[in-house]
Structures are given as C-alpha cells and as structure tokens.
Amino acid sequence: MTTNPALIAGGVLSAGASLLHLAAIVGGASWYRTLGAGERMARQVEQGSWTPHLITLGIAGVLAVWAAYAFSGAGLIPRLPLIRTALVLITAVYLLRGLVLVPAFVLNPGGVTPFVLWSSLIVLAYGVAYAIGTWTAWPALSGRP
C-alpha cells in the first residue's frame, strides 16, 4: 500500500483534536469554555465533577482511534480490521457533523454562533480529507494482493 497524503492529513487532524481534548482535561474549566464545550460542562468541572472529564476522555479516545485508522489506510501503520468500513463511517460522521451548518443557517439564519460556524467548517475539512483519502486508497484497502 502506498502512502496517502489526504489520509495522513486526516490522521494528523484527528490526532490533534484528540490531544486538544486531553489538554482541556488538564486545563480545566477555562479550557472547556474556550474550546466550546459549554458553560454547563465548565461549571461541572469547577464543581469537581468527573463527568465532563470522562466524556472528554471518551471523545479523545475515539478521535485517537480514528487517527489510527487514517494512518493505517495511508500505509503508515499496519492494516487495522475493517479498514474500509471504518474509514467510510468515520468520513460520514465528520461530514454529517460538518454539514450541521446547513440546517443551522436554514432554521436560524442570524443566530448561528461562532462556535457552530467554525467547528462545523473545521470538521467538514476533516471529513473532506478522509473522503478524498478513502476514495484514493479504496483499491488498496481491499486487502487483496
């Protein structure tokens, strides 16, 4: 399998997002606020609740696995199980999350928050990287020689 720049980019983006989530756990309530987790999550952190940290740790773990699948599809690490299925599903999740922006504008044209706007555009870029990379690598991902 040859390397795939789009999947490498997708993997780097997912790994970076995973690390950013871990940084929020270390950084505390102000980081949760800055990164858009919401006031409720930030308050829970301030009150000593572990729930926001566990949720954030779970998200970081999922993003790390998604990065591993991108790196596997790009040929940087050994082939992971169900690589085609995983990359299609990861791509779909990123694209659907990014496209949340469309109904947000339709339903509330003047009320789209900066967080919804920027996070949607960023995640849409992740999805595009995964889509291009998966499409490009598709024949090589079959596992057949």
Query: What is the ordering of alpha helices and beta strands?
Result: HHHHHHH
Coarse morphology: globular
Strand content: under 5%
Give me the number of helical elements: 7
Distance between the termini: 10 Å
The total of beta strands comes to 0
The amount of helix comes to over 70%
**Integer average pLDDT:** 92
Based on secondary structure, the structural category is mainly alpha
Taking all Cα atoms into account, the compactness measure Rg is 17 Å
Question: What is the makeup of the main sheet?
Answer: none
**pLDDT < 50 stretches:** none
Explained architecture:
It is built from seven helices and no strands. The mean pLDDT is 92. 74% of the residues lie in helices and 0% in strands. The chain has 145 residues and is an all-alpha fold.
Protein traits:
single chain; 0% strand; 7 helices
Nutshell version of this structure?
With 145 residues, the chain is mainly α.
List the helices and strands and how they pair.
Elements: H1 5-27, H2 29-34, H3 39-46, H4 51-73, H5 83-98, H6 101-107, H7 114-137
